Amino acid sequence: MNLELTVEDDRWQGLEALSRQAISAVLSHAALDPECCEVSVLGCDDARISELNAEFRGKPTATNVLSWPAEDLAPDEAGQAPHPPKPDFTGEIPLGDIAISFDTCAREADEAGKDIDDHVIHLLVHGTLHLLGYDHIRDPDATLMEGIEVKILGKLGINDPYNR
Protein backbone atom coordinates (compact mmCIF):
# COMPACT_ATOMS: atom_id res chain seq x y z
CA MET A 1 0.00 0.00 0.00
CA ASN A 2 1.15 3.51 -0.69
CA LEU A 3 0.80 5.01 2.79
CA GLU A 4 1.82 8.60 3.28
CA LEU A 5 2.22 9.08 7.02
CA THR A 6 2.69 12.45 8.69
CA VAL A 7 3.21 12.48 12.45
CA GLU A 8 2.82 15.89 14.08
CA ASP A 9 2.67 14.56 17.66
CA ASP A 10 5.56 12.49 19.03
CA ARG A 11 3.20 10.47 21.23
CA TRP A 12 2.09 8.61 18.08
CA GLN A 13 4.47 5.67 18.48
CA GLY A 14 3.68 2.79 16.13
CA LEU A 15 1.10 4.68 14.07
CA GLU A 16 2.53 3.41 10.79
CA ALA A 17 2.12 -0.26 11.76
CA LEU A 18 -1.39 0.33 13.15
CA SER A 19 -2.35 2.24 9.99
CA ARG A 20 -1.08 -0.49 7.71
CA GLN A 21 -2.87 -3.18 9.71
CA ALA A 22 -6.21 -1.35 9.82
CA ILE A 23 -6.22 -0.04 6.26
CA SER A 24 -5.07 -3.36 4.78
CA ALA A 25 -7.83 -5.19 6.65
CA VAL A 26 -10.47 -2.83 5.24
CA LEU A 27 -9.11 -3.02 1.71
CA SER A 28 -8.93 -6.81 1.83
CA HIS A 29 -12.52 -6.93 3.11
CA ALA A 30 -13.52 -4.70 0.19
CA ALA A 31 -11.67 -7.01 -2.25
CA LEU A 32 -9.22 -4.23 -3.14
CA ASP A 33 -5.52 -4.94 -3.58
CA PRO A 34 -3.81 -2.88 -0.86
CA GLU A 35 -0.74 -2.58 -3.10
CA CYS A 36 -2.79 -0.51 -5.58
CA CYS A 37 -4.24 1.92 -3.03
CA GLU A 38 -3.01 5.27 -1.75
CA VAL A 39 -3.96 6.64 1.68
CA SER A 40 -2.57 9.54 3.69
CA VAL A 41 -2.69 9.46 7.49
CA LEU A 42 -1.99 12.42 9.77
CA GLY A 43 -1.25 11.66 13.43
CA CYS A 44 -1.94 14.85 15.32
CA ASP A 45 -3.25 16.26 18.61
CA ASP A 46 -6.57 17.80 19.66
CA ALA A 47 -5.49 21.35 18.77
CA ARG A 48 -4.71 20.37 15.17
CA ILE A 49 -7.77 18.20 14.66
CA SER A 50 -9.92 21.01 16.10
CA GLU A 51 -8.53 23.33 13.41
CA LEU A 52 -9.27 20.76 10.69
CA ASN A 53 -12.74 20.06 12.06
CA ALA A 54 -13.50 23.81 12.10
CA GLU A 55 -12.13 24.35 8.60
CA PHE A 56 -13.78 21.40 6.88
CA ARG A 57 -16.90 20.71 8.95
CA GLY A 58 -17.62 24.02 10.67
CA LYS A 59 -17.21 22.36 14.08
CA PRO A 60 -14.40 24.01 16.09
CA THR A 61 -14.01 21.09 18.50
CA ALA A 62 -11.71 18.13 18.81
CA THR A 63 -12.80 14.77 17.45
CA ASN A 64 -11.13 11.38 17.24
CA VAL A 65 -10.85 10.87 13.46
CA LEU A 66 -11.62 12.79 10.27
CA SER A 67 -11.64 11.51 6.70
CA TRP A 68 -11.49 13.18 3.30
CA PRO A 69 -12.34 10.76 0.48
CA ALA A 70 -10.60 11.32 -2.85
CA GLU A 71 -13.94 10.75 -4.61
CA ASP A 72 -17.57 10.53 -3.60
CA LEU A 73 -18.44 6.84 -3.59
CA ALA A 74 -21.64 7.15 -1.55
CA PRO A 75 -24.43 4.77 -2.57
CA ASP A 76 -27.54 6.06 -4.30
CA GLU A 77 -29.86 4.52 -1.71
CA ALA A 78 -29.56 4.24 2.07
CA GLY A 79 -28.23 0.94 3.32
CA GLN A 80 -26.62 -0.01 0.00
CA ALA A 81 -22.93 -0.64 -0.58
CA PRO A 82 -20.98 2.33 -1.93
CA HIS A 83 -19.73 2.49 -5.50
CA PRO A 84 -16.30 0.91 -6.04
CA PRO A 85 -13.30 3.25 -6.32
CA LYS A 86 -11.67 3.68 -9.71
CA PRO A 87 -7.94 3.65 -10.45
CA ASP A 88 -6.33 6.82 -11.73
CA PHE A 89 -4.28 6.99 -14.95
CA THR A 90 -1.32 5.28 -13.22
CA GLY A 91 -3.41 2.32 -12.10
CA GLU A 92 -3.28 3.41 -8.45
CA ILE A 93 -6.46 3.97 -6.47
CA PRO A 94 -6.21 7.23 -4.50
CA LEU A 95 -8.58 6.83 -1.55
CA GLY A 96 -8.01 10.01 0.43
CA ASP A 97 -6.80 11.34 3.75
CA ILE A 98 -7.37 10.49 7.40
CA ALA A 99 -6.46 12.59 10.45
CA ILE A 100 -6.47 11.06 13.92
CA SER A 101 -5.97 12.83 17.26
CA PHE A 102 -3.84 11.23 19.95
CA ASP A 103 -5.48 13.18 22.79
CA THR A 104 -9.04 12.15 21.97
CA CYS A 105 -8.08 8.55 21.14
CA ALA A 106 -6.17 8.13 24.40
CA ARG A 107 -8.96 9.72 26.44
CA GLU A 108 -11.70 7.60 24.82
CA ALA A 109 -9.70 4.39 25.23
CA ASP A 110 -9.02 5.20 28.90
CA GLU A 111 -12.66 6.10 29.62
CA ALA A 112 -13.90 2.88 27.96
CA GLY A 113 -11.20 0.69 29.52
CA LYS A 114 -9.98 -0.31 26.06
CA ASP A 115 -6.49 -0.97 24.78
CA ILE A 116 -5.38 2.20 22.98
CA ASP A 117 -3.96 0.29 19.99
CA ASP A 118 -7.29 -1.54 19.55
CA HIS A 119 -9.15 1.76 19.71
CA VAL A 120 -6.80 3.39 17.20
CA ILE A 121 -7.21 0.44 14.83
CA HIS A 122 -11.01 0.75 15.17
CA LEU A 123 -10.88 4.46 14.33
CA LEU A 124 -8.57 3.86 11.36
CA VAL A 125 -10.93 1.13 10.10
CA HIS A 126 -13.80 3.59 10.55
CA GLY A 127 -11.92 6.35 8.71
CA THR A 128 -10.93 4.03 5.87
CA LEU A 129 -14.53 2.91 5.43
CA HIS A 130 -15.44 6.60 5.06
CA LEU A 131 -12.83 6.85 2.29
CA LEU A 132 -14.62 3.96 0.56
CA GLY A 133 -17.99 5.76 0.66
CA TYR A 134 -19.51 4.36 3.84
CA ASP A 135 -21.23 6.74 6.23
CA HIS A 136 -23.39 6.73 9.34
CA ILE A 137 -25.67 9.73 8.86
CA ARG A 138 -28.70 7.69 7.75
CA ASP A 139 -29.70 4.79 10.01
CA PRO A 140 -29.50 2.07 7.30
CA ASP A 141 -26.02 3.32 6.33
CA ALA A 142 -24.91 3.37 9.98
CA THR A 143 -26.13 -0.19 10.48
CA LEU A 144 -24.24 -1.36 7.39
CA MET A 145 -21.03 0.50 8.29
CA GLU A 146 -20.99 -0.63 11.92
CA GLY A 147 -21.60 -4.23 10.90
CA ILE A 148 -18.63 -4.12 8.54
CA GLU A 149 -16.45 -2.50 11.21
CA VAL A 150 -17.34 -5.26 13.70
CA LYS A 151 -16.60 -7.96 11.12
CA ILE A 152 -13.20 -6.49 10.18
CA LEU A 153 -12.23 -5.87 13.80
CA GLY A 154 -13.26 -9.41 14.72
CA LYS A 155 -10.87 -10.77 12.10
CA LEU A 156 -8.16 -8.69 13.77
CA GLY A 157 -9.03 -10.10 17.20
CA ILE A 158 -10.62 -6.89 18.45
CA ASN A 159 -13.93 -7.01 20.33
CA ASP A 160 -17.08 -5.31 19.06
CA PRO A 161 -16.57 -1.61 19.94
CA TYR A 162 -20.33 -1.08 19.96
CA ASN A 163 -20.84 -3.85 22.58
CA ARG A 164 -23.83 -5.41 20.88
The backbone outline, from C-alpha atoms, is globular
Low-pLDDT runs? none
Rg (C-alpha, Å): 15 Å
Q: Residue share in helices? A: 40-55%
SS strand fraction: 15-25%
Main sheet makeup? 4 strands, mixed
Along the chain, the helix and strand elements come as: EHEHEEHHH
Q: What structural class do you assign from the helix and strand content?
A: alpha/beta
Number of helices: 5
Separation of termini? 32 Å
Would you mind describing this structure in some detail?
This protein is α/β, with parallel strands linked by helices and 164 residues long. It has helices at 15-29, 46-57, 102-112, 116-131, 139-155, and strands spanning 2-7, 37-44, 65-69, 93-101. Strand 1, helix 1 (15-29) and strand 2 form a beta-alpha-beta unit. Helix 1 (15-29) crosses helix 4, helix 3 (102-112) crosses helix 4 and helix 4 (116-131) packs across helix 5 (139-155). The termini are far apart. The model has no long low-confidence stretch (mean pLDDT 97).
